[in-house]
Amino acid sequence: MSAQSSTEVERRKAVIPRLPKNNPGQAWRAAVKQWTEINPSTGYALKDWPASWYKGRVASRLGSTRNGRKLVAFAYKQAGSDEKFEEEFPAWKNGYAALLAAIRERYCLARESINGTRAERRQKREAALAAMAADEEFASDEEDSFEEDSDDSD
After folding, report:
1. Is the CB of residue 36 less than 8 Å from the CB of residue 47?
2. How far apart (Å, rounded) are the C-alpha atoms in residues 114 and 16?
3. CA-CA 20 to 30 A from 130: which of 33, 72, 113, 123?
């Protein structure tokens, strides 16, 4: 049995609390609070987390969530007040995901796959299916079932 490093033990307590779902105004405020205020269970505000908690092996689990909170806190700081923030980002009314998308768009931080945006991938898929349908060798009487890209990260 190997001894666990203190980093591994510390990383286990790296948890980002969920945001309120039924109250969009509380969701963005909670995101800002998580970024700036110390969480008693971790002993850190998200902005002060050790990099080992959100980079490397755990990046996919915590890095994206932490980065979202960072972007909301940054946009809030730029706005300077609750009223100005809500005025500049009316998408907050549609929930946290919509707000985050609006912030990414405003600051040109849109997430993009190496294969293009979701719209570009859909366009390529439709063009490929149309080309197959136009070719006798690949055309079929039945509609081929190709799964739609379900990657929501764009």
Report:
1. yes
2. 28
3. 113
Q: Which two tokens stand for residue 5?
A: 């490093």
State if pTM tops 0.85: no
- According to DSSP, residue 42 is labeled T
**Residues 56-59: contacts with CB under 8 Å, at least 24 apart:** 58/11, 58/14
Closest CA to 91 of 112, 75, 114: 75
- Report pLDDT digits (tens) over 25-59: 999 999 999 999 999 999 999 999 998 888 887 77
Which residues make Cβ contacts (< 8 Å) with residue 47, sequence separation at least 6? 35, 36, 70, 73
| φ, ψ dihedrals at 85, nearest 5° | -60, -50
